[in-house]
Amino acid sequence: MIVSHPESLRSLGPDVPTGLPDTAFVRHLPLPGGAMLDVLVVAADTDDEVTATETMWRAWLTEAAGSVAVAGISAPVVVPLYGCLVAWMPGRAAVVGPAARLDQLESAVATFSTREADLRDAEQRTATLLDALETDAAEAFTIDESSATRREGLAARYREAVAVSRRLALLAPAVHAPQVHPPTLASQLGERLRERTRLAERHDLAVSQAELAERVTESCGQRAADAGIAARQTALEWAIVVLLVVQTALLMVDLLARRGTP
Amino acid sequence: MTFRGASRQASIDVLRATAIVLMVVVHFVENLSGWFDGETGPFVGVHRVWWLPTGWAAPMFVFLSGVSYRIWLHVQTSRGRGREEISKITIRRGLFLIGLGFAFNVLIWLPEDVFNWDILTLIGGGLLALEVARRMPDAVIMLAAALVIAVAPAMREAAGYLDYWTAGFYDYDFTLADVALGWLVTGYFPVFPWLAFPLAGYCLAPRLGYGDDPRPDDRTTLTAAAALVVLAAGLVGGWELVPASLRGDTPLAWTMFPASTAYVLGTLGGIVLALAALHRLLDGQPDDGHFDDRRWPDNTAPRWPGLVSWATPLSRHALSIYLVHHAVHVWPLWVWSLATTGEATSLWQVAMPPWASLGLAAAFLLMAAVLCRWADRHRAVTAESLMRWLCD
């Protein structure tokens, strides 16, 4: 049996693939970091109906693979669950199953996708920070008073590293959450998607990378601050030297003038 | 890799060429005709307002030595030359110029004027000072320049400056006190206040768009330069209002000998504004992206190429022109004086009318321009190439 969803829940997005029942629709959901998730929802009561739609939703999912930033995921993650079938890729997902379970599955996919997008965004930001790390470390030893722009860059990267660490810390409870007991359809789907996409391992790796970026950027910033303080002290010392030289010259002129010819 | 500072800057060449042209004119006219026909004749001298531009030549020359040093330093650093090597070259160049200055004084002005502290010894000493100053923050260098200007009047007062200039030129005895005082205060180009020019040139070069971290059209610098000009004009206009205790025994507000505060501030501000304007008007970039000094100006695209193509050889060989133009008019003057009166310096400043000496200066400049271009084409030995061969 195919159940139709209210028209108001459907939003603008990619077209529903041809060959699917008329009641199939695509929901367009916003994700963190400005990304979007398109969920193809297909109601199918029997295993045969579910199997019959596979070619179509699989093609629909993979056609997006080239246009969506994929973090190490080249093929859809497919989770069969109690007569339902959920396929997920970054940016797109397909939910096929009895109409009564579709809402739970859709909700679970949306929740997972939100966390995964959050983590993916943090991973990308961490990668950018790590790229700059080598240059920062090298330049930390050549900072002088004319390196104000470099110091500003270091400060910006340190703020970014702290922001990424904070985001990963906020994400940790959800990523490392224990299994729900008694299990529900949605919780099981969420757990399987987490396992299949190695969300916990990716989170741990991102945390360690963000910590490294934060630690190195902070130490480079400290060196830059020390260099700034040292430069100001040096300037003061030079100013004193200049004053002493001028004073000495004045004394010399005064002394020589008394011994001069005229 | 192309360095912005490595490209020959047409603005600097034009300003330096202007300085050397003014120098040639002022030296020919004042040495040959300065007091010709006394006060009644068509005198070309220091007390005529229209003659004042000639007083800008030396400040331009010395200021540009600081700017050029900053550019040179940037190029050397960019090419990976170590600090020690740069120091050695700088010191060798400074000592070369000081030695050349003494030799020049002996050969041109005769041995009795060996310690008159001419501009070559100032530029050489300036290079030695910049060797130390380049380790300082720019703010401290500016402080040093300001102090050098500020204490100069007090030093002149303490040294009794005018006592050394009673005859209208610098007259000293061969005593350690007089020689040292001449170097510090009383000579033609003493450290106080003339050292302020190379220090300011070095410090302001990036703010005028040259050397490391160039920031052309820096509003603060241009505003400060304009303020210096206004301050100098105010001092000149209101000199009578300045308390006598502060005026000292300087009769005029704008004098080159001694370099009065108004003169130093006014020329400094004016040169900064002129260089900023020329930089904006003239400077082009190498058209093939790679500057090659030996091929200049063939591979650059400056604006007004006709002007620049004549100014650049004059600028490049300014040191040689400075040396030669003295030799070609002072030596004949000594010989002529000796032959006619039996005293080598008897015709100094009274040898001929100003129009004749001005004509000779023009003829020399024309010849110099042609010879400098010829020297560039044939890689002839010049004072500059000799300095590079010995010092670099």
Describe the 3D structure.
The complex is a heterodimer of chains A (262) and B (392). Chain A is rod-shaped, with a radius of gyration of 31 Å. Chain A has a 5-stranded mixed β-sheet, sandwiched between helices. Chain A has helices spanning 47-52, 54-62, 99-139, 148-175, 185-196, 199-259; strands spanning 25-30, 36-43, 77-81, 84-89, 92-97. Chain A starts with 24 loop residues before the first strand and ends with a helix. Chain A is an alpha+beta fold and 262 residues long. The longest helix of chain A is centred in the C-terminal third of the chain and has 61 residues, at 199-259. Chain A has one domain (7-225). With 392 residues, chain B is an all-alpha fold. Chain B has one domain. Helices cover 64% and strands 0% of the residues of chain B. Chain B is built from 15 helices and no strands. Mean pLDDT of chain B is 86; it is low at 1-6 and 286-299. Chain A binds chain B through residues 145-146, 231, 234-235, 238-239, 242-243, 246, 249-250, 252-254, 256-257, 259-262, and chain B through 135-137, 139-140, 143-144, 147-148, 151, 154-155, 158-160, 163-164, 172-173, 175, 177-178, 180-181, 184-185, 191-192, 212-213.
Features:
heterodimer; A: 262 residues; alpha+beta; five-stranded mixed β-sheet; 60% helix; disordered N terminus; B: 392 residues; mainly alpha; 0% strand
